């Protein structure tokens, strides 16, 4: 993970309670960065088992 600090909107998504969450934003806005930090947050602060985390991303190249 990088040394970049999440902005207010990213922090809100990262700290969202353990529940389904959709992050919808344009290219280059930090979606992958936010998802990475959210996964770490869920594991660290909510003891979520990584096997119970599903992350799906979509790209037109897929």
UniProtKB/TrEMBL annotation:
Which SUPFAM superfamilies does this UniProt record tie to the protein?
A: P-loop containing nucleoside triphosphate hydrolases
One of the Pfam families matching this protein, by short name: UvrD-helicase
* UniProt domain UvrD-like helicase ATP-binding: residue ranges: 7-62
Which GO terms fall under molecular function for this chain's record? ATP binding; DNA binding; DNA helicase activity; hydrolase activity
Q: Which UniProt keyword terms apply here?
A: ATP-binding, Helicase, Hydrolase, Nucleotide-binding
Record InterPro entries: DNA_helicase_UvrD/REP, P-loop_NTPase, UvrD-like_ATP-bd
Q: Indicate whether Nucleotide-binding appears among the record's keywords.
A: yes
Does the entry feature the keyword Protein transport, yes or no?
A: no
Q: PANTHER family this protein is in?
A: UVRD / RECB / PCRA DNA HELICASE FAMILY MEMBER (PTHR11070)
**Can you name this protein?**
UvrD-helicase domain-containing protein
What is this organism's lineage? Answer: Archaea, Nitrososphaerota, Marine Group I
């Amino acid at each position: 993970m990088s040394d970049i600090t999440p902005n207010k909107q990213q922090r809100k998504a990262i700290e969202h309670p353990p529940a389904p969450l959709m992050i919808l934003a344009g290219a280059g806005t930090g979606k992958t960065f936010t998802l990475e930090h959210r996964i770490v947050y869920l594991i660290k602060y909510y003891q979520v088992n990584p096997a119970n985390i599903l992350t799906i991303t979509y790209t037109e190249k897929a």
